Amino acid sequence: MEERYSKAETLALRRKHIGPSCKVFFAKDPLKIVRAQGQYMFDEKGEKYLDCINNVAHVGHSHPYVIKAATKQMELLNTNSRFLHDNLVQYAQRLTATLPEKLSVCYFVNSGSEANDLALRLARQYHGHQDVITLENAYHGHVTSLIDISPYKFNQLGKDSKKEFVHVAPSPDIYRGKYREDHPDPASAYAEEVKKIIEETQKNGRKIAAFIAESMQSCGGQVIPPVGYFQKVAEYVRAVGGVFIADEVQVGFGRVGKHFWAFQLQGEDFVPDIVTMGKPIGNGHPMSCVVTTREIAESFGASGLEYFNTFGGNPVSCAIGLAVLDVIEKEDLQGNATRVGNYLLELLDEQKEKHPLVGDIRGVGLFVGVDLVKDQQKRTPATAEALHLIYKLKEQQILLSADGPHRNILKFKPPMCFTMEDAKHVVETIDALLTEMEEATGMKTENNASTNAQCKTKTTEGSSQAEGANESIGHMNGAACRQENGLYSKKCSLSSKRIRT
User: Left, alpha or beta for 233 (phi > 0: left; psi -120 to 50: alpha)?
Assistant: First the structure.
């Protein structure tokens, strides 16, 4: 395929005409991608890259069934939802059939940010309350209302950036958080933190409109809440007139395997009041949705304001949405997420036993995080090492990203057609690169020498968290990442309960 511009010309034009805050992957040497198919992306030279990043191309890049559905509908009609059309109601019916019965009313919009913004409007209209409880490191979208409730973003703006109506609860992270895997009941302990926030806001005369959380935190570091946490939080929030918003923008549509929605990992006894969805819903086509109860929808309608979205729920978008649901079912992509996800986790668990740089493996289905550490005992984030590793993987034509509050979590969220062969290839490559990095720094030698001494050392949760947060990150030159501390041995590691699909 002949390109209009060379890569250098494309980059120069981007720098000239595109806002500087719009970043690219691999900024030191960005990729120019010209086509994609399935779980592969191709650059302008025809080089093939394995895509472990794109949870947007949910059923695979350029899926022929989705393309055919879009093209067929485009040839007939595309207009707004003020006209009757079967695609809209058929898609709403199919979508709500995947959810608990009480979640039955849809509002179609165009992006995850639009969906979460509308969810806040619904929540605030419901009982007239304004305040929102969010989680540490949360990210819910780029519009102003969502930057306000996204610590992942507003913390970058300075210490006074948090608004008075926003309250931040600890992330329910059992590896790095306040209550860890050795706690007898981390779900209740983290929920109690939310309860304390509610009590404090009430003392100050404020009222909670909503608690919002990703069903599994993505930008926050691939965090899977302990089972029972959402139920308890929902109980406390509803008791004061608030609602529970489950953000499924990153993790919905079968990515977790046996469940279609990630919030269902909490158990059948938990049902959110509002669910938002986006990214994978259209396999790359811009569409999203808010689903809620009849009661909340009628309260929103009672405001007297009509809600209209020019492109939300248009016939082409709904045709694409229906096609995505068809492919998930016909190609058993949920089953694939379970089989390949469990295999990927098994392979990565082996790396944890082998490599001192690997502190934690966590995930469900095809949503997996690898927490890289400089010190397994203190869990010191290996930020520079994570950055080095993803660039080395790119050289091996594997696309992976690093995220989390310390940017040390390797994030797996590939297209759902990802195979066992893909998983094996990626992990074998990571294994070789970690070995190279550890040998270059003497990390394994230090680990073996200090095993006995480290087994006698016990670090408190609070001090380890503080040291991890305050660890200065040196620049990595080649493979030369610096190891500063001893490491925790296998026998000293605490076992954590992991959800398996």
Answer: alpha
The rounded mean pLDDT for the chain is 89
Four-CA torsion 300, 228, 372, 374, nearest 10 degrees? 120
Between CA 3 and CA 102 the distance in angstroms is 51
Tokens of 124: 């605030």
What is the C-alpha separation between 471 and 474, in angstroms, rounded? 9
Select from 318, 227, 293 the least CA-distant residue to 264.
227
Packing angle of the helix pair 315-330, 86-96 (nearest 10 deg): 40
Strand partners, 40: 37, 50
- The mean per-residue pLDDT over the stretch 141-169 comes to 92
Residue 446 pLDDT:
56
CA distances from 355 to 248, 270, 370, 385, 451 (A): 33, 38, 12, 13, 14
pLDDT of residue 1: 57
Residue 476: pLDDT above 90? Answer: no
SS3 108: strand
CA angle at residue 364 from 359 to 366, to 5 degrees? Answer: 100
Q: Looking at residues 388-415, what average pLDDT do you find?
A: 96
Residue 255 is encoded by which pair of tokens? 């990515």
CA dihedral angle for residue 143, residue 149, residue 497, residue 490, rounded to 10 degrees: 90
Q: Which residues pair with 109 in a beta bridge?
A: 288
Let me know if 213 is exposed, middle or buried by CB neighbors in 10 A (0-12, 13-18, 19+). buried
CA distances from residue 416 to 39, 251, 336, 369 in whole angstroms, order as listed: 8, 12, 7, 16
Measured CA to CA, the distance from residue 108 to residue 89 in angstroms comes to: 11
208, containing H or E segment: strand 208-214
- Percent of the chain exceeding pLDDT 70 equals 88
pLDDT band with cut points at 50, 70 and 90 for residue 484: very low
Angstrom distance (rounded) from CA 106 to CA 23: 33
Quote the tokens at residue 271: 């049902």
Query: Which residues, at least 6 apart from 101, have a Cβ–Cβ distance to it below 8 Å?
Result: none
pLDDT tops 50 at residue 312: yes
Is the pLDDT assigned to residue 469 strictly greater than 60?
Answer: no
d(CA 70, CA 319): 6
What's the pLDDT score for residue 418? 98
Q: Which pLDDT value is given to residue 304? A: 86
Report which residue type is found at 371. Answer: D
Collapse the DSSP code of 375 into the 3-class scheme (helix H, G, I; strand E, B; otherwise coil) and give the result: strand
Q: Which amino acid does the sequence have at 394?
A: K
